[in-house]
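ok trying this again, last paste got cut off
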Amino acid sequence: MVEPDSKPDGLARVLVDERARLLRFLAARGAGDEAEDVLQDLWQRIASTPQQPIADPISYLFRAAENLMRDRRRSTASRERRQQDWYDLHNDGETPPGEAALVARERLAEAEAVLAAQGPRVSQVFRRFRLDGEGQAAIARELGVSLSSIEKDLQKAYRALARLKAKFDAE
């Protein structure tokens, strides 16, 4: 979390000091193996926001950690719901399971090719946002581009996939 040659200050210092308590707090609330990941996300959020005076930094950190964990759960639940809806929609029983799997693999390969044709960043942004559930702002920070660039990359991917879907629907 902390660079070897830098000393954290302010809220970051409190986070370092309270790391063990925060990990226990997250584990007690069901984060399990993801507690470290949630804490890393919290660290990145704190490092990327301007420093402001906070009346009770420990309470602030615990609330922020709980909110991040809740956001991750929602994202996971949403992703699982989309996957189940997709499965339910395309598994109507008319196509034999083996043939459906073959068609699905072919369509997936086409979708991957369409995304790859949009460029590596567009493909990466789409996968991280739609499949991994990462936020656009986090992706922008990690890639060193503006939020607007991320939005444009996503629009490009959506347009390409919409054209592919129209092709699939016509078949």
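PB: full thing came through this time. Residues 31 and 70 are 9 Å apart (CA to CA).
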